[in-house]
Amino acid sequence: MKKTLITILLLTxxxxxxxxxxxxxxxxPQPTPVVVATPTPKPTIQDGRDLAKGIVSELKTAKEENTxxxxxxxxxxxxxxxxxSKTLEVQKSADSLKEWGMIQQAEAQKFMDKYNNxxxxxxxxxxxxxxxxxxxxxxxxxxxxxxxxxxxxxxxPVGAAALFGSLVWFFL
Length: 172
Hints:
- The chain is an all-alpha fold.
- It has one domain (49-171).
- 78% of the residues lie in helices and 0% in strands.
- The longest helix is centred in the middle third of the chain and has 99 residues, at 45-143.
- The chain is elongated.
């Protein structure tokens, strides 16, 4: 443990001492560029004429570009007007479609109410028919009750009622 600690301290000391070594290589200085002023020539009449011609040609091209931009702006305005009119048409058709959908939903709701009422009536009538069939089964079972031995003879009307009622229930 002591040897390891001494080794670590020695390496740390050597590493920090190597950074402070006085005989390091010094960077070489880089030359800095010097700005040289060039004398500007005095303007002449010919230079003024050339400058005026350049300005005139730039003015002509600017006018041409301006007319092109005006025409493209007019086209863009016309296209936006057409797009606005088409947007209004689409909005109107969307509103009419929305109204149609609301009407269809109302009609579907009315139909579903009628259908649900009809289903309720159907099940009610089905139950009445099954009860009538069960009563007929009891009466028929009472007729055939004397053919079955005494402990089982009470089950004949009950079984006939269950059989007739279930047949009517399942087949309706």
